[in-house]
Records
---
Amino acid sequence: MTRLTVSTDARLTVVDVTDAVREAVADAGVDGGERVCTVFVDHTTAGLVVNEAESRLLGDVESFLGDLVPDEGWDHDTLDGNADSHLRALLLGNSVSVPVVDGDLALGRWQSVLLVECDGPRDRTLRVVVG
Ligand code: ZN
């Protein structure tokens, strides 16, 4: 398992982590054949998805999640004011699985691994496991 740290620079933002994950898979030194890479974000206010890393689309994702979940009015806000962040993250999930073929991620042409920060800016930890 490899741990990656990703710094985010806004409260709600999407970060393309494909290159870092690909490097972690290469460093894992798996031999040929078919395997699975699991990427897991160990936080409750960030999510992981596989989608297209096109800059306008990433902005649309941020707008979409912002519009989908109201910023205020949640019970959890009385504790630490970030219920909207938790709710956005739970819509996304906290892990993705990507096939690995001959030691490299087998992503589709337009697919990238995207970390969706819902309560930044922060340093986030990702765990990359190839099994
Ligand atoms: Zn909270």
---
Amino acid sequence: MKHHLILCLTLIALTAAAQNKNAPVNYDESQVPAFQVPDLLTCSDGTRIETRRQWQRKRRPELLRLFSEQEYGITPKHTGIKVKYETLASGPALGGLATQKQVRFVFTSPDGQKHEALLLLYLPRNVAGRVPVIIAYNFHGNQTTTLQHDVIFSPSKELMKDAGSGKWVCGEQASRWCYEMALQRGYAVATMCYHDICPDSPTLLSHSVLPIGTHREASDYGTIGIWAWGYSRIADYLQKHERQIDKHRMAVMGHSRLGKTALWAGVQDKRFRVVISNNSGCGGAALSKRVFGENVARITAAFPHWFCPAFNTYSENEAALPFDQHQLLALIAPRHFYVASAQDDQWADPKGEYLSALYASPVYQLYGMQGLPDGPQPPVQQPLHYDAAYHIRTGSHDVTAYDWQCYLDYLDKMLR
Ligand code: GTR
């Protein structure tokens, strides 16, 4: 009898999980539920925040804890992991515009396990003094980001089921990487394949640099937490070992799932002066409570390894969320964030991304700074560049030359 009951309950649980994958997706603005975003400046005990000191001492840590415990998982402070670097290649590249370096990171965990990741760094030549840097992961290996044939394949390629597919071919993603434009404007760019830090597949998690088990407790980090931790390890290297890099002018950038990751990294690591989220959508810049486009049910069903298990609780129940993504963006202040949307990328809810950026403004005000000014979402191709920034461009889910141009204009303003 007891066994029968357990079996029934298990079946119900499994069916519920399976149904999540098919949770409805809304693209109709008139069907957006009535909602109120949780107030940025009111603490859980009702205290109203009036000063930046109160924000820093009380509200910011409280919100950071919420995002750690309920969305991305708690980032470990002490991992015991040691990192060694080995330069595999270095020399002129991109028609003499850059010095290229390819650096192998070897992570050794306390139990002696080793993991390798490969950094590709382009430094501008003919620039005197230290330069700012943009750090951004790529999806299918360093070799896909450029047509230069001397770029070594990222090691994680070998693990992936689709390793033989066109996705991993040299230069395949080159349109997303405007290296020349950045270098000409005096920026270094550093990239690494995110799978090198932790493969984005539930069956390959044993290859992660940070350990992640098949069974996780409610607030245990998922892969977004691991990738964000990895962004900080790239910053460590650039800060300590690259004399040409200005450690006070580091920006972190990411597209889509890596945009979510860039935000979470930027919130936690104050070395990132500008945090760029390109089409990051659900679990990134977009407000969850609008339930427009991708929603919590869909994302947690499709990618059960990305967030901490506690986030599943809000599947088809965004109304119960005690936080929303505008508060994540606000945690970046007084440093700067840039949220960018694409008109045809409705899955990522461009309007929700804009509103989230706008609703973060009160914290910039506390700092005597100017976040996005009150007003409707700007038209396409009309960037708003304040102490926080936003643009929406024409086209689809992608990173384009237009996006790079806007980011570089903004970085020129904020990092000079
Ligand atoms: C989609 C996912 C989005 C976004 C995207 C990407 O499948 O639903 O949240 O992260 O992948 O990373 O390209």
---
Amino acid sequence: MPPLTQTAATRSILTPTHLLHTPESFVRTPLPGLTGGLAIVHACPALGARFLMYTAELEPSATLAPCPNQRFLYVLSGTAQLTLEDENYADREPPTHQLRPGSYAYLPPAANARIESQDASRLLLLEKPYESLPYTDPPSLLITHEDEAPQSPLEGAEALQVRTLLPPGPAHDFALNTLTYAPGAALPQVEVHYMEHGLLMLHGEALYLLNQTWYPTQQGDFIWMAPFCPQQCIATAQGCKYLIYKNFNRTP
Ligand code: UGY
Ligand code: MN
């Protein structure tokens, strides 16, 4: 029996203000609506997060049924097909969209969208109940590719490029962005804000400050940051890129 003081063989760590969830500790489970695949749940209300974020690992021909909440999906690897099974298409073939790495979709709560993997694929999914606003139309369905999303330097720093994947404006109650850091680039400040984050490191490596601790992080790592968790990121010599969720556009 190892001594009780032995360090756990994982970089994962959970504190009241953050979760660092690293691949050697991922646990795969079935989820309702997911056939022919398994999910790695990174964040959900049981954690204290007000959203569900998971990676769906799909075998060829696996399917993901529509869900009652709004959903955002981003293709990490492989290819998939999205079919809009609406009653408008009862007398003809419903439209399908081919998704490849970097393709993403925003599906409003009522969207009857079925996803089917074409080869083994990995999708990142975000789901949460939609918070409507008076006098504001809810967002419409969007299916596109990251290469089409607007990109700009964060606060003028060319070494840190942000792509905003969802249209601006109050219709959306969350934001999903990718941040790409050149080698050695850093966030311009330690941030403390009311929004919470779900972050997946897509490429490279970075040192990430969460509350008062700096963690080495790398491709495949997930981070949940509670509201007001102090945060900062400095890319290593490899640079890095991550996808990040935050609640947005609503009175805190
Ligand atoms: O949008 C954000 O708050 C972002 N800059 N935070 C982060 O990268 N940790
Ligand atoms: Mn932030």
